[in-house]
Design a protein that fits this description.
Helices cover 29% and strands 19% of the residues.
Length: 443
């Protein structure tokens, strides 16, 4: 009888962030009869998908021309499909409109407190028994404090721009304009400039292609190389629909990593020989992939020139690792990614990334006595982030409610130690390490 009472008891849940992960978390809380309160520091939902002309608030936003890399068939919430007239791949405006429709359809907006910053999330004195959290927030200069039975952190990957200037000798004496890709919004203002984009991820590739239409010359520097795929596949079907399949995943698990790598490289080079384009993966570097329909054509046309990693800057030029030099550079854009942070936590949770705290199934910190803290969306996927965050939120809310159980914290910590030892083992191939690690965290 006591267990049944606990399962039906309404619990208050703090949701931090009203982006893609936050919206699904609010919805999943309501599905389990939990009471969510979402804190969003901006004035609207959508997180980075809400376009703004500037980044003066310090938040990361998409650039105007951004288009989704995963088709709508693979990137919707499970109970709210995209409208039929939506294109297979959407620009940021369409995608944000979808999030707005989702929030309005399930009446989620009334659970969100906008223009509210979470200042601190700390354990209550009786945390080992109650599992509760003391949350302090600030809205327009006024602070509030409340106690919650659980917390869902939905702040995403793109918090703090990573600008590794210390890795680029001479950048401090460079007289041109230096910015991070977070600041890039539109191509206006770069007309007739010689632009160097550093970093070949999806963002670096997109910016280089867009600027190639207005800039005098775009140089794209990569220290690793990358595989490039388009959005369409054989027969004109969206690439993500054809590539992300259970049968393909099964084959990947069965084949030796070296064989799988050989097959993938052969298939990618059938489209175009990446080495001829200066895009091949540099020996010893981790393989990666980006989605870009136009980059190979821009390289063929000479509007984008591939360069190796930058060795040194001068006042107006850049020297590259292959010994070449490019003169009269006007702008350097660092598309070097982001760092994660949890400034509202106390240590060791505050340094969740740098301390390598083990997240059980990439959701629950292993060092807590009570499983009342969930990190949602803190992972990478081959496909869309939406279905992944929804599944995480579903599971987390059922754990909060008491319908699902986690192993004891001591066991999770022991498993984390074993995983670390496996990763350090030089005798095991990556595929074997992954399989063993998955077995260790299996429910």
């Amino acid at each position: 009888m006591k267990e049944a009472t606990e399962h039906t008891m309404v619990k208050r849940v703090a949701v931090i962030g009203a982006g893609v992960s936050g919206l699904s978390s609010i919805k999943c809380c309501l599905d389990e009869d939990l009471e969510p309160t979402c804190f969003e520091r901006s004035n609207d939902i959508g997180g980075l998908w809400k376009y703004t002309e500037t980044s003066t608030d310090g938040m990361t936003r998409v650039y105007k021309s951004l288009v989704t890399n995963v088709s709508k068939e693979m990137s919707c919430y499970s109970d709210f499909p995209f409208q039929e007239d939506y294109p297979n791949y959407m620009n940021q405006g369409k995608f944000w409109q979808y999030l707005q429709e989702f929030a309005e359809h399930f009446d989620l907006l009334k659970y969100i407190q906008f223009k509210t910053t979470v200042c601190s999330v700390t354990k209550c004195p009786d945390f080992s028994i109650s599992g509760q959290w003391d949350v302090i927030t600030e809205t327009e200069g006024r602070q509030d404090r409340a106690v919650f039975d659980a917390v869902m952190v939905c702040t995403g990957h793109f918090l703090n721009p990573r600008l590794p200037l210390e890795s680029f000798p001479g950048i401090n004496k460079f007289k041109g304009h230096v910015l991070h890709s977070q600041e890039y919004k539109i191509p206006e203002g770069f007309q007739d400039k010689r632009v160097l984009v550093i970093g070949l991820g999806n963002t670096g590739g997109d910016i280089a292609v867009e600027l190639s239409r207005t800039a005098a010359q775009v140089l794209l520097s990569t220290r690793t190389g990358t595989w490039v795929t388009g959005r369409s596949s054989h027969g004109g079907y969206p690439f993500s629909m054809m590539a992300i399949r259970r049968s393909h995943n099964f084959i990947k698990q069965m084949l030796p990593s070296c064989v799988l790598k050989w097959i993938q490289e052969r298939q990618m080079n059938k489209i175009f020989n990446h080495e001829n384009y200066g895009l091949s993966i540099i020996k010893g570097k981790k393989s990666k992939k980006i989605v870009n329909d136009e980059l190979p054509t821009c390289i063929l046309c000479g509007t984008v020139t591939m360069k190796t990693s930058v060795k040194e800057f001068t006042e107006t030029s850049a020297l590259f690792e292959d010994g070449t030099m490019e003169e009269n550079i006007d702008v350097v854009i660092f598309a070097t990614g982001y760092t994660f942070s949890f400034p509202f936590f106390e240590e060791p949770l505050k340094s969740l990334c740098t301390k390598k705290i083990f997240l059980y199934k990439k959701v629950f910190p292993s060092n807590l006595e009570k499983a009342t803290l969930a990190i949602i969306g803190f992972f990478g996927l081959q496909g869309s982030i939406l279905p992944g965050t929804e599944l995480q939120a579903r599971w987390a809310t059922r754990v909060f409610k008491g319908l699902c159980k986690l192993p004891p914290s001591q066991k999770l910590m022991a498993d984390a130690t074993k995983v670390e030892e496996l990763i350090k083992s030089p005798s095991l191939p990556p595929s074997k390490i992954l399989m063993l690690a998955l077995q260790m965290v299996k429910c």
